[in-house]
User: Fold this.
Amino acid sequence: MRERVAYIPQRSSVDWDFPITVRELVLMGRFGQLGLFRFPKKADYEAADHYIDALGLSACKGRQIGELSGGQQQRAFLARALLQEADIYLMDEPFQGVDHATEEVLTQFLNDLKKKGKTLVLVHHDLSTVQERFDWTLLLNMRLVASGLTKEIFSEENVSRTYGKSVALFERSYEKSRKKEAGFRS
Amino acid sequence: MMHYFTDPLLRAPTIASMLICLTTALIGVLVFLRKESLLGESLSHATYPGVGLGLLFSSLFISSESSFMSVFVLLFAGVTSLFALFCIRVLQKRLRVPADASLGLVLALFFGIGVTIASRMQFTHTTLYRQGQLYLYGQTATMTDEHILIYAVLLLVVALTVFLFYKELLTLTMDPQFADTIGMKTSLLNGIVAFLTVGAIIIGIRSVGVVLVSAMLIAPAASARALTQSFKQMLLIASLLGALAALIGTILSLELSYTLYALFPEEKPSIPAGPMIVLVSGGISLLCFAFSPTTGLVTRAIRSFKFRTKRREENCLKAIWKKGGTVKTSDLIDFGTHRQIFRVMRLLKREGWVKPLGHGEYKLTSDGTKRAKHIVRLHRLWELYLVEYLGIGKERVHCSAAEIEHILTPDVERQLNTLLHNPKLDPHHQPIPSGDLL
Amino acid sequence: MTSYYNPYTNLNFIEVIGLFFKRLFTGSLTLESLASDEIQLLVLIFISASAAMVGTFLYLRKEVMLANAFSHTILIGIVGVYLFAGEEVMQTGLLPVRSMFVASVFTGVGTAFLVELLARYVRLQEDASIGLVFTTLFAAGVILLTLLTKNTHIGTAIVMGNVDGLQLSDLKLAFWIFILNLVLITLFFKEFKITTFDPAFASILGFSTLFYNYLMMTEVSITAVGAFRAVGVLMVIALIVGPPFIARLFVDRLKPLLLLSVGIGLLASLSGVALSRHLLTTLGTPYSTGGLVVTLIALFSLLSALFAPKRGLLRRHSS
Assistant:
């Protein structure tokens, strides 16, 4: 069962000083499938390179992971997860603190994975993007508040029950994000 | 120096030491990357009671002249060290003692018990006592060819383990969470690392001694880390540096001991090998830190010097261009001392950007002119950017541009040009040289 | 002193303790008439009291391994004293008190500085910086000291100490170090307390956490210097961390912790000296007194870890 699940952690839990290049990091995705006493072969390296290129990381392939920008680091971890070729992907705040380019790449990949029939479970805190991105939502605040199809359960009432804040705050931030999406540049 | 490898009395100490320190350095990389250097310190001191007990136990079976005493000592030392590891874990997990206190406590208490045992042996088993004391600081002078065999075999076992479990060790050390999720048996692997660590320590204590062996875990690894960004290379370089330190340290300690003995034959002084190896290793580390391609002080100083030279060159080029293409070196005194200017002009001449006219006069070549114009372009583009996009007053942008002009890359230049829509004038209404120069 | 009869000869454990207290309370313990056992005991008492006081703070500040590093690097300071103190030191092996103080302060500050340097300019991780600095300096110290004293076994003495070789000068040193530690800790008690428990708050209030850190490390160096002849550099850590560890299993507040730690240190010292004499009397073998003190601390630690009320491992499951 473990081999079917890929987990992408929050960026903060990694040792960025570790002497490992992007390529070696991505290759790690294959280690689970290889098992003990087997070594990665040319095909594995090529698969790693494929995902590295697909995520736009070819230029920093040989660099130590600490030298990358936040968005590049996130993409490297995504590449590693993709190399696992799992059926279920668990991601912990993958959109947090990334630049616009990375956000686009990530969204595109997630959509691709979805089309291939993979299951994606994300921890996500950006309320303004929940409705457009996710089919199913789980609202948790130490206990389950609500779960179900996003369009059914993602209401102001449920959200304020989860966050414990007044509805007005949520309303205002929602309004602002709607305005921004409508092309209103400040 | 070759006689250290061939002379029957010297080759065992030399070669065995090298094999030993190679082993400790190899595992030391793992210890270093797991940030467990202080654990190594604690576990190594905890071997001391094992040394005494091992000697006592082995004396029941074999004569004290046999080299296979080392094997008993190793075994018992390993047992006490592993027991110490167990105690540390219990202290940290069950009694919730802070990490440093648990390490320090186990270190001091185990070592103290070892001292008590040794003090007893001092009077009841004097020969064994003296052998035990050798393990404090390491002593290789009494090693025989059999030791070479023993430590070669041990190195082989250790190296093979690291090789077979390479990818597991890499993943476990770098991202234990990930290792878990892809199905690696992390508790088993952690156990293997613990055994390897204790193994490296008990191997090391013969050559470097209980007190200092933790240095041979850390120093080669730290040196290697300064030189490379690859885990694989780090393992290789650390091992080599460990062996090198052992070689130089053993030679120095033996040579120094002979010299001392010649000078003061009555006192029979000798320098133990361990501290010498550690000192050499520390020296190697210092060199590696200084010359590290990424963080080395020497490397950075050189880079800084090169940049300052480049800056001076470019400033001089600009100045010559502004003065109409010809200049005397005396006109350039603002940009440096007489000697610095002389050097710069020589460099500019070598690049083909200026032509000497004699009597300290120089003229810009066409290449030089293009280059000077390019720098001016970068300067003025940056000024424009600061004024238009960051709203900085045009009186204040000159200083920043004077620095930035030397570091803007062609890529950034292109982006600035696009952003500013192919500008022709800078904020001071001076013309910006066009971009198709170089 | 040579034709003097040691009243502790051939006594067993209880008798030793009995005699000591008798001599203590009848005023027979004058500097001229101290038996060697008593010198050992008093030195150990002062050292363990100093170590326990400093150790309590170090335990709470999580700086025990850092203290271990400092106790090693004082060796360089001692080498310095040998170099500058000249011939008389070489002959008698006795180190002048004032020079020891100065040496320990210098090495304390110097070590902290070097570790900081490595961490900042080489960007070496903290645990490796500490490990690298002190082991290399210690190795240099051992080599230099071996060269200076032309004694191959000086390295062993450094690390094991020699309680039986203690003299009156050692007692004076240990006493003054104890007084110094007592004064500093009493004077700066509030400051040490705040910088230990809430350094962020302390710096807001204007206390320089850096200063008190350096001060504490200097105290460690000084205490280690005092202890080095008696128990050696490694076992002083047992005196520093053992008593607080044990005390912490029983009490929670700072002042009781300090008092109990000192008490435990004193108990271990007294029992160690008495036990050493006892074993010499009954078995005829001289055990290292320093080693015995540490072994006793190990025993107390084990017993406390198992049986301490509320926290002991074997007591936890009973309600």
